Amino acid sequence: MIIFTSKKNFFCVLAAVFCIPVFGDQTISITVTNGGKTFDGIGGVSGGGATSVLLKDYVEPQRSQILDYLFKPKFGAAMSALFVEIPGDGNSTQGSELSHAHFRGDENYFRGYEWWLMREAKNRNPAITLDGVAWGCPHWVGNNNFWSQDMCDYYAQWIQGLQHEHGLTFDAIGCRNEKGVNENFAKKLRATLDRAGLEKVRLHGFDNWGKDKWNWTKNLTNDAELRKAVDIISNHTMSEVGTPDAVKVMADEMHKPIWNSEEHVYKKGFDCEISLVQVFNQNFISNGVTKILCWYLEASTYPIEPFFDVTTLAAATPWSGEYKIHPALWAYAHYGQFVAVGWKYVDGACGNLNDGGSFVTLASGKDFSTILETKGSAVNQTIAFQVSGGLAAGKICVWRSNEKEQFVKLDDLTPVNGSFSITLEPNSIYSLSTTSGQQKGSFAEQPAAKNFPFPYHENFDHYADAKSFGYLPHYTADISGGFEIADRPDGNGKCLRQVVAEKAQSWAPEWMPYTIIGDEHWTDYEVSADVNLEHGGWAGLLGRVSNTGGGYGCNPKGYYVRLDADGTCSLWLSTQTKNGAPGNQLATASVGEIGTNTWHNVKLQFSGTNLTAFVDGKQILSVGDRTYASGMAGLVTGGEGNARNTALFDDLIINSVNGVKPEPTVFPQDAAPMYAAIQAASKTPKEIVAAHADDFNSGSPEAKNIWDGLVAAVNANDSATTQTVLEQLKNADGLSPNQLTAITELEAALKKTTAKPAVNTALIPTPRDFPTNWISRHEGYVADAKKGGIDLLFIGDSITDGWRWGNGGSKIWSEKFAPRRAANFGIGYDRIQNVLWRIENGELENIAPKVVVLLIGTNNSGNEDDGSPRNSTPEIIAGISNLVRRIQFHLPATKIILFGIFPRGQKNDPIRDQVKTVNAGISQLADDKIKFLDLGEKFLAPDGTLPREMFPDLLHPNEKGYQIWADVLVPALDGFLK
């Protein structure tokens, strides 16, 4: 408990050499019980605006130095939590990040830099937690509906990619950043993660801000499914709108932690540092928050982007290598270097100081740490401590920050009989701890700041392996859309391609796809590039860009020239007067039809107030305008409204007006691409242990002994022993960054060796050559579709095909469904992938049925003739889910009645269990346009057998079975169509 006492009424005997006052203005009693809440971490957010885009372009050793400041234990901030944006191709404040799936069926887990950043954080601190959420997603997801099963699958796919390709485990995930509440989505997401084998990934919701952000929590008390789905109650900015007492009580009763997944402290200097510690303390004291994440991690954006440099450090000039550490970084150190995830808040030892300030105490085992701040205090405060309950009684280290000096070690305190005291100065931060090894990390030398290289010439050909660079060129910052390194269609090297073909479901209003580069202070210069309009539309160049929007909306302030496929060339002024507006047209002219798939050079020149545009070396337009005098360059493609336009760019040159064409810029960054470590992880375990032998020969004896055993197990191809010894090595003390890297690489290599994911064939559209009339039957269905007049469409395999059979459902079909203008597109032996191929190749064109009846999947269950499984249960669920979404894509107005796979085989057949699990999985697809029905109980006898008088071959129903099917389907159709 905390005992508040008046001055001079607490006395303890202290060693005189420490000159510690013996009277306390306030007493804190630290006694560990089992009731304290678990500390879940403090860290920063990478994303919510492409906030780390320039960090990747730093050369070594500066890039590693910056990462050490952020993540290395007991060195700098020593963050215990990292929160990342799950990218979605759309603007989310400062900029946009590349999705792993630009379109349905697309998968690439090396786009962008978040994968790399998480890996670097884990290399330095294997205990750091990884968490995240999407601000938005590509247009195709849910047919432009974020709260969809598609988005659940998108999330699961991303987490699995993180595991399989990067060897990292995601700890928690949100539903969507600051876009309201959708409780059904949370339930679907929980079910989807569980089906994908991601049961340990905790789900938090709903990450909103404002006074109504807590309203949804009342439903946790009366909705058991929601309560089971949401593991953590999370919201933003508790410093603005705190946690209501009722929510704190409910969270305790339900054993659900409360997290602050985005806190804001937008200040400078030491005021930012002490305000952060105040917020960290009060998040727990006043709001019951056990995990705090501040937006954002570090400033690695251009200064013209919104909210620039309100964080730990600025790393915004990778061409120079210079970076700046801010006092705010040491706010994190006051926590990160003294406590770790899993420690417990000490009940009764957290609260407010009498004369201004606050304190929080955490403990683990015999160790404890207390973090105090005296923001706003006007007097010194002497605080007495009484420690009991088996906590360490040794020396207490003391670290302090104030306006004059940050994170400085003071003299240790020595308790006597568990008692000690300390005098706290006003407007200061203190960390007291029984732990040791803290340091104010630093590096001896740092390059001086330099201007952006000028002139500049980027031809993109030096990115030999675009994947190793995350498909991102150096120094560009995508504000909207996505600009990737790509192969030129003509085979003549590399180029840059704007890849977003449809407007993303962005968090913020968007302008057209554009990326920026350069120096905000440039005045008179010219920017040129070769452009290729792949599919029409237009593309162009930006210049004198001085601002990219206020955060919610990303219209630039600047000029741009655009070249349309019809040959129109025009000059524009963008003024941010309206979100998404193209701006004011200054001049226009025609250069003759440009067409598609041809390269043309476009140049935009600035000289004083004169703006001049050139196409293929010929001056086309010239106007005067004095709105903007300076700013950066950029690339842009068409996209008014919801339209988007992919386009190619090459040979980007930024030069003095009428200057001589410069040689291509040389990039030292090419020596160490982001994913070089991933490439190393693709080596065999034997290659990895050989490469890291020196790292352990010079390390601690404990680690060296364990390593020797690990090497022996690897060389003996003993995978079981290798895994066991590797776990022992991970727990060794004092591992260096290189040793941690070796462990991470070896873990990734072992996962790839023992658990490389199989291709899900149910997701790949596949035609069949058996039976021989399969193609002709498909072509017949395409012809039927062209005739139109279909209101009710059945799609499936032989069981659906059986509505035609005399011993099956033909009679019932004629009576019940033919009058409803029904069509039957069933083919025997079809699997999910075969039906997928059929609908992607014309069977759903030219029709708009009111309802589709879908039954598929039985031929994906069970085993092949050689005994190997056809598809796993999660693969079948994913395949059917994808098929449903593709039907919705082709027929957006059509409703779907989805039937669970019919039972088959004897009652002890293992396929029965698989079918039951699949049906439970696909039942989650149900919504207002999808009705799920399962006929299993109607077909099975009470003892679980499948009657042969209804299923003669224990697979296909006869007329009696089709009658039961019709008796359920007809009323379902009538009710669904009302």
Give short descriptive properties of this protein.
978 residues; alpha/beta; 8-stranded parallel barrel; 8-stranded antiparallel beta sheet; 41 strands; globular
Write a structural description.
By secondary structure, the chain is an alpha/beta fold. 25% of the residues lie in helices and 23% in strands. The chain is built from 22 helices and 41 strands. The strands form 7 sheets. It has an 8-stranded parallel β-barrel with strand order 3-4-5-6-7-8-9-10, surrounded by 4 helices. Strands 22, 24, 25, 27, 32, 33, 34 and 36 form an 8-stranded antiparallel sheet that branches. Strands 13, 14, 15, 16, 18, 19 and 21 form a 7-stranded antiparallel sheet that branches. Helix 1 packs across helix 2, helix 3 (149-166) packs parallel to helix 4 and helix 12 (701-715) packs antiparallel against helix 13. It is globular and about 95 Å long.
Outline the fold blueprint.
Blueprint: E1 2-3, E2 26-31, E3 41-46, H1 62-71, E4 81-85, H2 114-124, E5 129-133, H3 149-166, E6 172-173, H4 183-195, E7 202-206, H5 224-229, E8 232-236, H6 245-254, E9 258-263, H7 269-285, E10 289-295, E11 313-317, E12 322-325, H8 328-336, E13 344-345, E14 351-352, E15 358-364, E16 367-373, E17 381-388, E18 396-401, E19 408-413, E20 419-424, E21 429-433, E22 456-458, E23 477-480, E24 483-487, E25 494-498, E26 514-517, E27 526-532, E28 538-547, E29 557-564, E30 568-574, E31 584-590, E32 599-607, E33 610-615, E34 618-624, E35 632-637, E36 647-655, H9 676-681, H10 685-691, H11 693-697, H12 701-715, H13 719-730, H14 737-754, H15 774-787, E37 792-796, H16 798-801, H17 810-816, E38 822-826, H18 832-843, E39 851-855, H19 873-890, E40 895-899, H20 910-922, E41 930-933, H21 936-939, H22 959-976
Parallel strand pairs: 2-17, 3-4, 3-10, 4-5, 5-6, 6-7, 7-8, 8-9, 9-10, 37-38, 37-39, 39-40, 40-41
Antiparallel strand pairs: 1-2, 11-12, 13-15, 14-15, 15-16, 16-21, 17-20, 18-19, 18-21, 22-36, 23-26, 24-25, 25-36, 26-35, 27-32, 27-36, 28-29, 28-35, 29-30, 30-31, 32-33, 33-34
Helix pairs in contact: 1-2, 3-4, 7-8, 10-12, 12-13, 13-14, 15-18, 17-22, 18-19, 19-20
